[in-house]
Amino acid sequence: MEKARFEPLGERDVEAVFRLWARAHGVPAERMRQRLEIMARHFGYPGFAGLGAYLDGRLAGFVYGFTGMPGQWWYERVRALMPPEMARVWLGRHFEFTELAVDPAYWGRGLGGRLHDAILERRGEPRALLTVNIDNERAQALYQGRGWTCLLEDVRLVEAGPLLWVMGKRLG
Ligand SMILES: CC(C)(COP(=O)(O)OP(=O)(O)OC[C@H]1O[C@@H](n2cnc3c(N)ncnc32)[C@H](O)[C@@H]1OP(=O)(O)O)[C@@H](O)C(=O)NCCC(=O)NCCS
Question: 40-59, pLDDT tens digit by residue?
C-alpha cells in the first residue's frame, strides 16, 4: 500500500469524517445525522486534535480527541461509573481518545495503528481514556497491543446503549 499522507483535521473535514465513521462502523449515514452534530461540537472542544490519513487524495482513515474536562457529557458519565479513587487518578485533563476509524477497504494494513500512535505522540496530557464496545475485538486488540488497559468492564454510558469497556493509557 502507498504510504498514507497525514494531515491535521479542521472544521471543514467534519462531514467527510462523519461519512467515513459511518462506513467503518457499517451504519447508514443518513440515519445518524445526530452523530454529525456531536462530531461538529467535538471539533470545537478545548485541546481538540485530529488527523486524517489520505490515500490517492481521499480520506482513508482518521483519529481525533480532545482534553477531557468536567461538564462534558462523556466525562460526567464516566465519572459516575468509576470508583472515586479511580476517578481521582484517571479523570481530569486527560486526553479523550474519541474516534478512530479506517475505511474497511484498508483494514489490517497498519493504518489504524499509525493513526493511533501519531495522535498520542503530540499530546501533553499524562493520561488518555476511551470507550470501546465489548464485541469490537479488532479495536480492543489494537488498544491492548498499544498499552491500554481495561479500567471498567461491561458498563453502559446510557441505559439502552451498548456494553462498553472504559480503557486507560498512561502517556509519555
Ligand atoms: C479498529 C480499526 C480502526 C483498526 O484499523 P486498521 O487499519 O485495521 O488497524 P491496523 O491494521 O493498524 O491493526 C491494528 C491492530 O488491529 C489488530 N488486528 C488487525 N487485523 C485484525 C484482525 N483481522 N482481527 C483482529 N484484530 C486485528 C491487531 O492487533 C493490530 O495490531 P498490530 O498493529 O500490533 O498488528 C478499524 O478496524 C476500524 O475502523 N473499525 C471500525 C471503527 C472502530 O471500531 N473504531 C474503534 C472505535 S473504539
Answer: 999 999 999 999 999 999 99
